Amino acid sequence: MFWFLTILVAMANGEPAVWPAFLGAGARPGATQSLPLEWTATENIAWRATLPGHGQSSPVVWGERVFVTGVEGPNKETYHTVCIDLKSGDELWRQSIENSAPVANSYYVSRAAPTPVVDQDRVIAYFESGDCVAYSHAGDMLWKRSLVDELGDFKAEFGIGASPCQTATKMFVLIEHDGPSGLLAIDKATGKTEWKVDRESRRSWSSPAVIHVDGATQIVVSSAGSVDGYDPESGETLWTFTDVGGNTGTSPIDYGNGRVLIGASPGRNGENAGSAADSNCLLQIARQGDGWTVKREWIAEGAVPSWASPIVHQGLAYWINRAGVVHCFDAQTGESVYSKRTKQSCWATPIGVGDRIYLFGQHGIVSVLAAGRKFEVLAENESWNDETLPAEPLLAEEESPERRRGVAMFSKPTLYGAAVVENSIVLRVGNCLICVREADAG
């Protein structure tokens, strides 16, 4: 709870704007008046910053510095951490480390997928190889380690994708694959493991989240058949909820007062269709004596997300599916408010700001909806075109015919994530950051 309050107090006091981890991690963007409503590939684009290699992570922001990661090389030999000036788009520094577990670079494996975390003292980049490195805001290396040395080789056909979350002193890393899996708490100042809890081997790419329940902080993991709460200080399992399935890609979302949104997907071939149907839901966590209870309050009927996590904004919960259909529910009752189609499928999670909901289309169309019970599209914005952001060079040819057919889709520029701070929206494409800002906003 202290970390969450620190962010809110700092923002209220006019201190540096922050977007400190995956999905913002409690950051509350300001009013929409300062954010752009409309833009094109050439208008209200403050800057574009070309990045080394390719990355699927989202940007994080502390004050005037944007941090992002990437990977480069035919066998993903080199990991990069890059710092960009938020105002100008200039590269302030770039640091690189050698990948301790190189594998063939492919459209079908994670490529610098985990989003880093940042606080007032450091930025910590964690990569799917298990390599983990901390830098000061000036780019000086503070520590580096490989989690593989402690856990053994990662055995994941499509790679590791879970982003870490953090409290004031610890970073929490979820490692789930076909080998020994677990949740680790790492001291942010030293890089040393504070505790580790074993988890069943399973394939999942969902990220843990810091959830605040009745004055206590918990680390909540929603992953492949269970939702679990952990004590951040000791790693003790506080509660487990197992009546779920298909929850392999989305993160638990804190609605406040012990309420958590859970997302679940039927899977690419519908293998989880049965269990996922009832697993897009709101869970209520509550104290009971010295322990905790968890129950499902309502089900998001018909909602079937892909990679985008659900969000809650101004009392309404939103899910978006693979086809770009937005499902809106009353967050208190679970009543369906509307289901409407938008321009594009979304891989990135939507962001609610003031009276708007920003939907980040996979291929760069950002739809802006009116927040509220009426479906209203306020704007549909093209963030790039073939001239402003050409396709990246193709990777080595895939082995199977099915994968070769998929290259046409995966090789196009993809919008993986976004950060919202003050008057800027920072978009992450594989090899580029794009800052959207009103032309007169400075």
UniProtKB/TrEMBL annotation:
Q: Which domain of life is it from?
A: Bacteria
Domain Pyrrolo-quinoline quinone repeat stretches: 83-253
According to its UniProt record, what is one Pfam family this protein matches?
A: PQQ_2
What range does the record give for the signal peptide? none
Which PANTHER family does UniProt cross-reference here? CELL SURFACE PROTEIN, OUTER MEMBRANE PROTEIN ASSEMBLY FACTOR BAMB
Give the protein's recorded name. Outer membrane biogenesis protein BamB
